[in-house]
């Protein structure tokens, strides 16, 4: 049976968000939040545009999803994000009690796994979904930026 | 010599912010960000009012300070916050490269110390400034809330 709404389907949406960040000269990370088969929030990194270290893709998606739901807890929601969340974003996801986090590429240095950020007991996490697409986009960004300087 | 601009002076400003949160029915936590002798940003917890788990006092103060400075790094800045920062806020402070964090009361369960959130190497942290005032306000809030239910 065809399953159109699988992890790859939603991670592609998150990658589209990452591409929007790339076009704005932002480190290309994108996120969507999904409930059932429906995307209820989108976000991409805007730290340079907004001049704000807190403007990560996930933070904006969390705020936007809560706004959509009319409640601050993201129960039965899944976050798709192209890069493993950092301490700040994982800390925000802890408070949100989100049901599931699906990330693309690992972030060995600044990601929540190696830094052991505590997730909410209700939250499951899965990684490596379309990781190659996410990390290729990041590599392309840093190569282009280096060539500009 | 009289030192009017000491840690207690600025923590009192943060406590005033916490009282504003209290009056709005929010868990009373307040913060200010200071550069030299000048308060450049204020914030208090607004998670209920804004229906947003990311709306902690510190997060709003970080965004506001960057806006004031016209740059996202909070170099030479000190954050005064009435309660030890959580993982999310400490993670945001990591990205901000803030010079110093001064907190009031400890948060043994959800604070960044016991949860071992990584701070930026440039960041110093000091605790226990006017801790009694901060924790009394929190206790009063939870007692009143319990009596309402």
Automatic annotation (TrEMBL), chains A, B:
The keyword Hydrolase applies. Homodimer. GO terms for molecular function: tRNA-specific adenosine-34 deaminase activity. It comes from the Bacteria. Catalyzes the deamination of adenosine to inosine at the wobble position 34 of tRNA(Arg2). Binds 1 zinc ion per subunit. Its cofactor is Zn(2+). It comes from Gaetbulibacter aestuarii. It catalyses: adenosine(34) in tRNA + H2O + H(+) = inosine(34) in tRNA + NH4(+). Its EC number is 3.5.4.33. Residues 5-114 form the CMP/dCMP-type deaminase domain. The keyword Metal-binding applies. InterPro entries: APOBEC/CMP_deaminase_Zn-bd (IPR016192), CMP_dCMP_dom (IPR002125), Cytidine_deaminase-like (IPR016193), tRNA_aden_deaminase (IPR028883). Zn(2+) binds at residues 56, 86, 89. Belongs to the cytidine and deoxycytidylate deaminase family. ADAT2 subfamily. Keywords: Hydrolase, Metal-binding, tRNA processing, Zinc. The active site is at 58 (proton donor). It holds the Pfam family dCMP_cyt_deam_1. This is tRNA-specific adenosine deaminase. CDD domains: nucleoside_deaminase. The lineage of its organism: Bacteria, Pseudomonadati, Bacteroidota, Flavobacteriia, Flavobacteriales.
């Amino acid at each position: 049976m065809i399953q159109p709404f699988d992890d790859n389907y939603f991670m592609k949406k998150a990658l589209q968000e990452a591409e929007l960040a790339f076009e704005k000269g932002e480190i290309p990370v994108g996120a969507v939040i999904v409930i059932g088969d429906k995307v209820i929030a989108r976000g991409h990194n805007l730290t340079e545009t907004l001049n704000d270290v807190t403007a990560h893709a996930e933070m904006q998606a969390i705020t936007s999803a809560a706004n959509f739901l009319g409640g601050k807890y993201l129960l039965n929601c899944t976050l798709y994000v192209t890069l493993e969340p950092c301490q700040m974003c994982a800390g925000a996801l802890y408070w949100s009690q989100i049901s599931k986090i699906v990330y693309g590429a690992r972030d060995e240095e600044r990601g929540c796994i190696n830094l052991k950020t505590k997730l909410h007991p209700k939250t499951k996490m899965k990684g490596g979904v379309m990781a190659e697409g996410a990390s290729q986009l990041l590599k392309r960004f840093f190569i282009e930026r280096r060539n500009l300087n």
